[in-house]
Structures are given as structure tokens and as C-alpha cells.
Specification:
With 401 residues, the protein is mainly alpha-helical. It contains 17 helices and no strands.
């Protein structure tokens, strides 16, 4: 009989590698945010409102690649193992940062985001690794560590981008290349193979629709996937519009944008690395969702109408508390899947997240463009839309419960 229990070896260094890998993905998203408005205004020769549309396109292309490749990579990790997939992807990310550092045209920026989106599809494999080494009652907490790594990346990425903007908009990419290269070396040294039972690779399941059909067959999962989708569309308003919103509403420069995102990232680390271990075990995953989905809607409503930069900074840690929702949903869904489906499941979740990340930047930047192009300026309009979507997510959860 095949042993499917979690490995008992010391997993501390491999977990560090996984958290660093996820962190570097977040760094890749976050470090370009502070410099993107100025970079696109320079490259495309447009104003802030139009630059937001180009920025939304780049963000959506990145997410589209994740959507197309996450199930494939998740299934490849179920067939060949977590280690080779993670290490190869980290090598590609390292090379992509070097390409982005040399990018002086929009088309090279676009190519760089395409490659980065494909390589970053290993988020599903990183999460599957955590599922491999976790007992059922610890899965939600360890998924929180993955989210904490992502949050830490949101500390470092915007901070690096904002601080290094003084040396030009390409300088942050050199720093990210150095970080990813060092992590690749660490992974080669310490990352074990955790997949205990491999299954054949099937093309019909290695695409977004095939994997979704297979996972939806699990009892009660379909409704929760819809909750996950609307939550993600609403939550992606922050990276999609933050740099443009804060510059328009408060006159912040790249350094201030980077620092404000770093505050959000620090708050995320506290929530996902610490608060989650107190809240979810006491409330339970479903009660956490019932409480914090409407909490998120209230925060988004507040952000939409903030008029002062200092008040926005004060609200930022409270925004991060709402991130308790993501690991709670992952924990509920993960319990419904078998051990040899975890890679596929996480690939489907990553694909749904990617669809949300495709739709959200296009939607939110368009709303921003419409709300800031005329005489009446309402830069907070995208957050009002996000609030409505969060209410939809909460209503779907209540209906499914």
C-alpha cells in the first residue's frame, strides 16, 4: 500500500525556500507598482489617467499567462514532482528579471510580463508542496504561511521599487534578479521531493477548463469556487489601481507609494503569519468567512471616500486583516480533495485567481480612467466597485452555507 502521509523529515529550510519563492513572485508584482505610472507616462507619452489603462493591460497579460499555465504546471508537479518544477521556474524568473532590467520599450515590458506570468504559475506547486507536508488540521495554517510569504514580498517589492526609483525605473529589476538567483541556489541545496504518490499526466486535466471540471465534481466545491472568484476580483483592486489612485487622490510620489504598499505588506505578514493562527482555530474556517467577507466590503467602502493621505495610511492595516479570507477558503476546499489531487486543486484555484486578476485590472483601471478624465474627479470609484463585488462574494457564501 502506498504511503500518503506527510513526510516527517525536517521541513524548516524547504518551507523557507517555498516562502521565498512565493515572496519573489510578490516582489515581481510589487516592485513595478511604484514606478509603473512614471515609466508608462515616459514610454507611451501619455498622462496619468491613460497610463493607468496601459498598466492595467500589462497586469492582465501577466495574469492571463498564469491562468493558461497554472493547471498545466500544477499537473506536471503531480506527475514529475514538486522539486523540478519549482527549481526550473525559479531559474526562468531569474532570467526574466534581467530581461526586464533592459526593457526600454512597451513591447519588451509586455514580453517580460508574459514570461513572468508563466513562471509565476508555480504558485500552485508551492501551495501543493505545503499540502504535501501538512496534516489535515494544519493545512489552513500552513497555507497562511504561503500567504505570509506573499505578504512579505509586498513589503519588499514596493519598498525596493520606491527606494530604487531614484536610480531609474529599471534598477529595481536588478535587485529582484539578485534575490531570485540567491533563492535558486538555496532551492538546489535544500529542497526535497515531497510528492509521495505520482499520477499520470493527462492533457484533458492540464488546462483551465479540464482541471475545473474535475475539481467541480467534488461535493460542495463549485459554490466555493464562485466565492473565491468574486473575492479575488474585488481584492485585486489594490495592486491594480493603488499607484494611480494615491497619486491622483493624495499627490504621492513613487517613494510614498512604495512605502504605503510596504505598510500593507507588513500588515499582511502579521495577519497571515500570526493572526491567522489565533483567529481560524477559534472561529473555524466557515465562521471566518462569514465575518470577514462583509468586513472587507466595509473597508473598501471606506477607502473609496477617503480624502486625506494620513487617513489612508491609518486604514491600511485594517485592510490587511481582511486577508484572513483567502486561507480560510483554501482550507475548506482542500479538505474535499484527495492527496494526489492537491496540485490540480491548487492549480485550479490559481487559475481562478488569474482570471480575477485578468478581469480586475482591466475593469478597475477603466473605472479609474472614466472617473478621473472629466471635470468631476472621483479616484476612489474603483474601490466602490470592489465593495459591491465583495458583497456578491459574501452573498454567494451565505447561499452555499
Amino acid at each position: 500500500m502506498t504511503d500518503t502521509s506527510p513526510p516527517t523529515r525536517d521541513t524548516r529550510l524547504p518551507i523557507v525556500f517555498i516562502m521565498l519563492t512565493v515572496m519573489i513572485e510578490a516582489v515581481g508584482i510589487g516592485l513595478i507598482l511604484p514606478v509603473m505610472p512614471a515609466l508608462l507616462e515616459e514610454v507611451q507619452g501619455v498622462g496619468l489617467s491613460q497610463a493607468a489603462l496601459w498598466g492595467g493591460l500589462l497586469a492582465s497579460i501577466y495574469a492571463l499567462m498564469q491562468f493558461l499555465f497554472s493547471p498545466t504546471i500544477g499537473n506536471l508537479s503531480d506527475r514529475f514532482g514538486r522539486r523540478p518544477v519549482l527549481l526550473l521556474s525559479m531559474a526562468v524568473i531569474f532570467l526574466d528579471y534581467i530581461l526586464m532590467a533592459f526593457a526600454h520599450t512597451f513591447w519588451l515590458l509586455l514580453l517580460g510580463r508574459i514570461i513572468a506570468g508563466i513562471a509565476a504559475a508555480t504558485m500552485s506547486t508551492a501551495t501543493a508542496f505545503m499540502a504535501d507536508i501538512s496534516s489535515p488540521e494544519k493545512k489552513a495554517q500552513n497555507f497562511g504561511l504561503v500567504s505570509a510569504g506573499f505578504g512579505l514580498g509586498f513589503v519588499l517589492g514596493p519598498a525596493i521599487g520606491g527606494l530604487m526609483a531614484e536610480w531609474g525605473p529599471r534598477a529595481p529589476f536588478w535587485a529582484a534578479a539578485a534575490i531570485s538567483g540567491a533563492n535558486l541556489v538555496l532551492g538546489l541545496a535544500v529542497l526535497p521531493e515531497t510528492l509521495r504518490r505520482k499520477r499520470p499526466f493527462e492533457w484533458r486535466r492540464a488546462n483551465p477548463l479540464g482541471g475545473l471540471i474535475a475539481i467541480r465534481a467534488l461535493p460542495g466545491v463549485g459554490a466555493l469556487l464562485a466565492v473565491w472568484f468574486f473575492y479575488q476580483v474585488a481584492n485585486w483592486v489594490y495592486p491594480a489601481i493603488w499607484a494611480y489612485f494615491t497619486q491622483s487622490a493624495f499627490g504621492w510620489d513613487a517613494r510614498m507609494v512604495g512605502m504605503s504598499l510596504a505598510v500593507y505588506g507588513i500588515s499582511m505578514v502579521v495577519v497571515q503569519g500570526g493572526l491567522i493562527r489565533w483567529v481560524i482555530p477559534r472561529l473555524g474556517e466557515r465562521r471566518t468567512l462569514a465575518w470577514f467577507l462583509p468586513y472587507n466590503a466595509a473597508i473598501l467602502l471606506g477607502v473609496a471616500f477617503v480624502e486625506h493621505g494620513w487617513l489612508m495610511l491609518a486604514l491600511t492595516p485594517f485592510s490587511a486583516v481582511g486577508a484572513l479570507v483567502a486561507p480560510a477558503i483554501q482550507g475548506v476546499i482542500s479538505r474535499a480533495a484527495s492527496d494526489d489531487q492537491q496540485g490540480e486543486l491548487q492549480g485550479v484555484l490559481a487559475s481562478i485567481t488569474a482570471v480575477a486578476a485578468i478581469a480586475s485590472p482591466l475593469l478597475m483601471t477603466r473605472v479609474f480612467n472614466l472617473a478621473t478624465s472629466g471635470e468631476t474627479q472621483f479616484p476612489g470609484a474603483p474601490f466602490l466597485v470592489a465593495c459591491a463585488l465583495m458583497v456578491v462574494s459574501w452573498a454567494l457564501f451565505r447561499r452555499a452555507s
